[in-house]
Amino acid sequence: MSEFMPARLSTEQVYILYSSWTHLRECNVSLHEDLERARSQEDRMVYELMNQIPPVLEDGRVGRERLKKAVN
């Protein structure tokens, strides 16, 4: 049974690994921010559309409030 021996990395290899890890971390943060922006934009669009629906429709049906309850 052989013991695990950690690999010896050169300074250049350590730099490459660290740079790659840092880049991936920055990409992850950027993707998270993009997702938050998209969700925020989607929420704004839904809010704007909901506000275009009158509280009571012309034919007497309940509009916006009933729809809000159904969505939530």
Notes on the protein architecture:
Keywords: Mitochondrion. The chain has 72 residues and is mainly α. The protein has a domain at 28-71. The chain contains 2 helices and no strands. The longest helix has 42 residues, at 11-52. The radius of gyration is 27 Å and the shape is rod-shaped. The relative contact order is 0.06. The model has no long low-confidence stretch (mean pLDDT 80).
Biggest β-sheet: count, sense, barrel?
none
Give the SSE string: HH
The rough form would be described as rod-shaped
- Helix- and strand-based class? mainly alpha
Beta-strand content: under 5%
Q: Work out the helix count.
A: 2
Count of β-strands: 0
Low-confidence stretches: none
Mean pLDDT: 80
**Radius of gyration, rounded?**
27 Å
Helix content: 55-70%
What is the first-to-last residue Cα distance? 61 Å
Q: What is the topological layout?
A:
Elements (H helix, E strand, L loop, with lengths): L10 H42 L11 H8 L1
